[in-house]
Specification:
By secondary structure, this protein is α+β, with helices and mostly antiparallel strands. About 30% of the residues lie in helices and about 30% in strands. The protein folds into 2 domains: about 5-235, no CATH class; about 275-355, no CATH class. The strands form 2 sheets. Strands 1-11-10-9-2-3-4-8-7-6-5 form an 11-stranded mixed sheet, with helices on both faces.
Length: about 350
C-alpha cells in the first residue's frame, strides 16, 4: 500500500468520523427490537459480496464513482488514480453499459485491506459484448479455475464472471472468497445488521455503508502506526452507518443515518435526542481558520446527561467531577460550542469558544 493512499484514507476516515459524530442530519436507534422495515435500497450486486465486508460503496453512475474514488476535487490524493489497476478498470467501464458499480472492502491479510470491484451491466447483450471488451483491454486471460469458476488475470487484477457481473480484485484471496459465497448461496445479506440497514435505507443513486465496529481493521490497514491508538474510540462511535453521496458543483455532500445496536455503549447515542440549534461560528472566526467544529443544540443539559450515560456504561467517569464540570459549563448559558484551529504566529493553535445566550 503506497503511503499516499495511507494519507488519503487517514484523512478521509477521520473526516468521516467527525461528520458522523458531530453533524447529524438524521439518526436512527435500532435498539428497540423493531424488525419492521420499509422497502429500501436495492443492491443488485449483493450476491457476490462476502459477509465480512467492512465497507460497501455503491454507485449508479460510473462517472460519480470516478469522482469519489479518484477525488477529482483534488482535496486529497486519489484513492484509485486512473493509472492504478482499479482506476484503469473503472475508466474502461465508462460508456460500456455498466449501470451499477459496487466496491466493497475486505480484510485480506494482516494489516491489509483489499477491494472487491463489481461491474453490473444493464442487459445480457451489453454484458456479452462490453465485458469482453473491458477484459480484453485489461489483458485478462484465464489463469486458473476455482470451485468450477474460471479466474482470469490481467492488468494487476483477478476476475470472474457471474450473471451480468464482472467481479474483480487485486487479491486472489478476496476473489476466491466471493466465489465460495456464490457457490454456497451466502452473501453480506446474511449479516443481520447490514440487512436491516439496507432495508431501511431510502433508495439513492450513490450509497456508502460502513461497519464502524470494524474501524480497527481500517486503521491497521490504511493508517500509520501512531494513529492506531484512536481505533478503539472510532470503533465505538456506532454499529453501522449509511450515507447518500452527492456531488454538487463545488462540494461533496454526505447525508445519512447512524445505526445503533449496542445501546448507550455507542458514542452516537449522545446525540440521539439532541435538537439542533443555529450556528454563528462564521461571525467570529477569522477567514484563515484551518478547521472549525461546532456543536449547537437547544438543550446542552440533556446532551451532557447523555454524555454521562455513555461514559458510565464503560465505568470511566467520576460522578462528582462530572457534576462540578457540568455546573460550571451550564453557568455559561451555552448555545454553541466551537473548537477551531487558528493561525498563531508561525504555527496553529486550537481554540475553544462558548457562545452564550
Amino acid at each position: 500500500m503506497r503511503k499516499i493512499n495511507k494519507i488519503y484514507i487517514t484523512v478521509t476516515f477521520f473526516l468521516l468520523a467527525l461528520i458522523v459524530t458531530v453533524v447529524f442530519f438524521y439518526f436512527k436507534n435500532n435498539y428497540n427490537g423493531n424488525n419492521t422495515f420499509v422497502t429500501g435500497f436495492k443492491l443488485s450486486t449483493v450476491s457476490v459480496i462476502p459477509t465480512d465486508a467492512i465497507a460497501v460503496l455503491h454507485f449508479n453512475r460510473i462517472s460519480n464513482s470516478i469522482d469519489f474514488l479518484s477525488d477529482t476535487s483534488h482535496m486529497f490524493p486519489p484513492l484509485y488514480p486512473s493509472s492504478s489497476p482499479v482506476g484503469n478498470l473503472i475508466n474502461l467501464s465508462v460508456y460500456r453499459g455498466v449501470s451499477q458499480l459496487t466496491v466493497s472492502f475486505h480484510y485480506s491479510a494482516k494489516n491489509e485491506m483489499s477491494p472487491l470491484v463489481i461491474l453490473y451491466f444493464d442487459s445480457d447483450s451489453s454484458f456479452t459484448s462490453n465485458s469482453s471488451y473491458i477484459l480484453r483491454k485489461m489483458s485478462a486471460i484465464k489463469e486458473s479455475s476455482y470451485n468450477g469458476v474460471d479466474i482470469l488475470a490481467g492488468g494487476g487484477m483477478k476476475f470472474f464472471k457471474r450473471g451480468r457481473m464482472v467481479v474483480a480484485s487485486n487479491s486472489l484471496i478476496i476473489l476466491q472468497s466471493s466465489i465460495r459465497h456464490v457457490k454456497s448461496g451466502a452473501s453480506i445479506m446474511d449479516n443481520s445488521n447490514f440487512k436491516e440497514i439496507v432495508a431501511s435505507t431510502p433508495n439513492g443513486d450513490h450509497m456508502c455503508f460502513f461497519n464502524i465496529q470494524q474501524f480497527g481493521k481500517i486503521f491497521s490497514s490504511f493508517t500509520e502506526y501512531p494513529y492506531w491508538k484512536y481505533a478503539d474510540f472510532f470503533s465505538k462511535i456506532s454499529s453501522w452507518c449509511s450515507f447518500k453521496y452527492e456531488i454538487n458543483g463545488s462540494g461533496v455532500y454526505l447525508s445519512g443515518d447512524m445505526y445503533n445496536t449496542r445501546g448507550r455503549r455507542d458514542f452516537a447515542t449522545i446525540f440521539q435526542y439532541a435538537e439542533a440549534g443555529s450556528s454563528q461560528l462564521s461571525d467570529v472566526l477569522p477567514y484563515n481558520t484551518l478547521v472549525a467544529l461546532s456543536i449547537s443544540v437547544k438543550d446542552f443539559d440533556k446532551l451532557l446527561n447523555s454524555f454521562y450515560e455513555y461514559k458510565r456504561s464503560y465505568k470511566v467517569i467520576d460522578p462528582s467531577l462530572f457534576e462540578n464540570d457540568k455546573q460550571w459549563f451550564m453557568s455559561q448559558n451555552p448555545e454553541e460550542l466551537v473548537l477551531a484551529l487558528l493561525p498563531y504566529k508561525s504555527s496553529y493553535r486550537w481554540v475553544t469558544l462558548i457562545r452564550s445566550n
